[in-house]
Amino acid sequence: MPTLYNDCHTISIANLKRWEYLNPDESKNGVITWSRNGNEIASIRIATNMNPESPILQLDYRYNDTPVNYQVELVSISSNLGKGVIWYFLCPATGKRCRKLYLVGGYFYHRSAFNGCLYEKQTYSHRIRLMRNSFDLAFLIDHINEQIYSKHFKQHYRGQPTKRYLKLINRIEARKMISVKDLLNW
After folding, report:
1. What is the C-alpha to C-alpha distance for residues 133 and 51, in angstroms, rounded to an integer?
2. Distance, CA of 109 to CA of 102 (rounded, Å)
3. Which among 123, 125, 103, 122 has a CA at the least distance from the CA of 113?
4. Cα–Cα distance, 56 to 27 (Å, whole number)
5. Distance (Å, whole) CA 63 – CA 106
6. Which of 76, 149, 155, 178 has the fewest CB atoms within 10 Å, i.e. the most exposed one?
7. Whether 162 contacts 154, CB under 8 Å
């Protein structure tokens, strides 16, 4: 059975930002814990140093009773909106920029650093994928309509339909192609 990315512990830029680890010119340390069914299954000590010349994330944890301690560089690029910056990890193994690091084999790296790892969906047969998509379309139509008709949803921008709107409309059209008979024949 391959390692599934869905089951891996992860560290994400979004969480670090939400927990205020990426504030300019600040250092902060703390602990990240992972739990399942209310029971703590893993924890890691982290520290960030947001020095403008070389911002880093320090990771300190035990993997199979072996202490592991290393740094991950943080890099930023200017936002395309001209407001602020977008932060990325610089993977120690691949050198790639990424917004999420996965723990496989004892180290937090970009997903491309690992061989034989898959997302859970990739392990499903073609038939199961088609069946799941059909059922999702059949039962999520109300959710799609709620999104389209929500208060601040933009259907058009500068006279053109938005990509999100077109995607939702395409899902509605795909739903029209599925009959109850199709669903019962699975």
Report:
1. 46
2. 5
3. 103
4. 10
5. 6
6. 149
7. yes
Residues contacting residue 171 through CB under 8 Å, at least 6 positions apart: 137, 140, 144
Pairing state of beta strands 56-63 and 156-157?
unpaired
Between CA 127 and CA 134 the distance in angstroms is 11
Residue 21: C-alpha distances to residues 53, 90, 100 (Å): 16, 16, 15
Neighbours of 47 (CB within 10 A): 15
Cβ neighbourhood burial of 110 (10 Å; 0-12, 13-18, 19+) = buried
* Cα separation, 135 vs 154, whole angstroms: 27
Q: How many CB atoms lie within 10 A of CB 93?
A: 13
The model's pLDDT over 128-176, given as tens digits with 9 standing for 90+, comes to 887 787 777 667 778 888 888 898 999 999 999 999 999 999 888 877 7
Residue 117 corresponds to which amino acid?
A: C
